[in-house]
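Supplementary Text 2. Reproducibility record for the structural model of the 266-residue chain.

All settings were left at their defaults, and a single model was retained for analysis rather than an ensemble. We include the record here because the model underlies the residue-level annotations in Supplementary Table 4.
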Amino acid sequence: MFTLKDTIYLIELAFYVPIIPAIIFVILLHGVKKPHTWRPVIIPLILIAGLRIAGATLGLRSLSPDKSDLVSTATILDTIGLAPVVCLIIGLLIRANAPLYRGLSLWAFIPLQVLVVASTIMTAYGGKDLYTGGKNVQRDLILMRVGIFLFISTFAIAVVLAVITVLKVNGKGYRTEWAIAVCALLSVPLMAVRLSFSTASLFTGQDSVLNPLTNNDTGVWLHFFMVIIMEYIISFSATTAGLTARRVVTYRYTEKDDLLQEGEEP
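Retained model, structure tokens:
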């Protein structure tokens, strides 16, 4: 039977499948060379799109009676999907600071990415048994709550760095970097809603409408608007920033160039 949840899976596919060719175009447009590399943005975008497409595909395959166990796998992928979204915001900040004379160092962001990895391991390991009816439910719940707390802490630090970045690029001729920094800053309230949903779902019990496994229509709609829509707007904004950013052409001067400037023949 085709349900509301299955319709949401189809919407997810419609959202994220077109992002893949857009990402390829961003790579072709800007390349991956430093210092103006888009790799910190492109890699999380690929992960987000990949996880969402995989989760939606597994969710649709679970329509078959012999594939019903795939629902929990799709839910775990949904939980893991929180990590690349946080990394995407961090990646936008890395790209915005890359060409700045006194921008934030890359080392200011690496600890945040390490925290995201640690958070992902905790939530994925905890969700593996929690959403599949494992025996150690209490332990898994604690792991997931600690993981979400680390996500929130990482996000809070990223918000501070986003404000600092916007102040650094404001009014200094960095139009592309200004747009990227603003994109990261505008993602803050959307990410706050996404984190609020994940946090509330871990503290309201399995019978709550916030439970990711719920088949209640209200719960499905809440998940759609507070998770899928929030993540997609952030992903779409970052992709748009990459597509509309000016291409930076780096010219390397050599000794031959100096000779040419003196009027000698090439």
